[in-house]
Each structure stands twice: as C-alpha cells, then as structure tokens.
Amino acid sequence: MTGLKVFEKEKRPLVLSFGCDGDVTWEIDIRKRMPNAEIHIFDPSGSSSWAPKVQKLLDTSNIRLHHMWVQRKPRRSPYPARTLPQILQMLGHEGRTIDMLKVDVENTEWPLFEAILTDCQVRFQHLNIELHGQYCEQHQRFFEALDACGYMITYREPNHWGCFGYRCIEYTIISRTHARAEFQ
User: Fold this and answer.
1) What is the pTM (predicted TM-score) of this model?
2) Which segments constitute the Methyltransferase domain (predicted)?
3) In the sheet where 14-18 sits, what is the strand order?
C-alpha cells in the first residue's frame, strides 16, 4: 500500500473500514503493519453467516466490528445507519482527521462522498476506495471534489473479479499533506 510509513510511526492512527462482507484481510494486514492503530469495521450484514467467525478473528486482533452502515444523511434504512460525522462522534473522534479510510460499499459511495467532500467537511489522509458504475459524470464530480479538497490519486487498478470486469475501479487516494510527510 502506498504511503504507510508515516502512520506506522504514529502513536494511535485511526483506521475506519466501510464494507467487508466477511473478508477482513485488509484490516488484519493493517493491524500487522500498525499494531497501535485503532481500527473499526462498519458492515451491517454482520448478522449473516460470516459474522461469528469474523468476530472471533477480530477479537484476537483488537479490531472492532460495528453492525451499522454509513450514509450520507440519516434516513430510514433496514440497517442501523449513521453519517460519517455521527460515527466519528460516536467513537469520540469528532473533528479528528481519519488516518486511513477504506470504502467498498457497493455503489453507495457516491452520495456518501458527495456529502463529505462538500466543503471538505471530513478530513482523511489515505483513502482506499472501490468506485462502482460507469457514469462518467459521477466520476468527474468525485475527482473534482477530491482535487478541490487537496487529494490526489496515487494508485488505480480495475477489479477484474467483480462488476463484469470493468465497472469497478480500485483507487488509493492520499492528501497532499500526507504525501509531503510521506515522501520527504
């Protein structure tokens, strides 16, 4: 992963992961690289068959699994859901910059990021995201908002395993501030 040296030196980096569907490989790898990190996974489908096995694995890794979803704004949902600012407040990190953010929320990333990139209201240093869909206007607005908030793409890879092999693209995006600290 791009640019983790700075986080590996921090006392308690904050790592939030939205969407895992039972695969916590990324989060376990982050734990190994950053043993002091505070890591939270948010996935409402945790009541499914994978939850007990994953919870047992996470308990030994000191990673918290929250059975809730992140949304752009509070609304009716079949799952418990909160906005990202509400989640940060719930965790006691209101106003804090998120060190690492992973987002794979199956096409609901668009309204989420439309909300958090408006006025750059939630700050993060490092973002791993899978973008879904093939509508260029969404992608263009997303990247324009990222640029306006001081972020840049450092890695891009198509996900050939899902989305018909071409409708999902995985990105690593970092803040310019983090890039300067990481690559000095």
Assistant:
1) 0.86
2) 7-173
3) 63-66, 38-42, 14-18, 98-103, 124-132, 168-175, 151-158
**Cα angle value 144/152/6 (rounded, 5°):** 145
pLDDT > 70 in the chain, percent: 87
CA angle 50, 52, 53 (to 5 degrees): 70
Decide if 178 contacts 10 (C-beta within 8 A).
no
> How is 140-163 classified by DSSP, letter by letter?
HHHHHHHHHTTEEEEEEEE-SSSG
What count of other Cβ atoms lies within 10 Å of the Cβ of residue 33?
13
Cα distance between residue 181 and residue 24, in whole Å:
28
CATH of the domain at 94: 3.40.50.150
Q: Are 63 and 24 in contact (CB under 8 A)?
A: yes
DSSP 96: P
Residue 19, domain extent: 5-182
Confidence of residue 68 (pLDDT cuts 50, 70, 90): confident
Span 99-140, pLDDT tens digits = 999 988 776 777 777 777 777 877 899 998 888 776 678 788
The domain tally of the chain equals 1
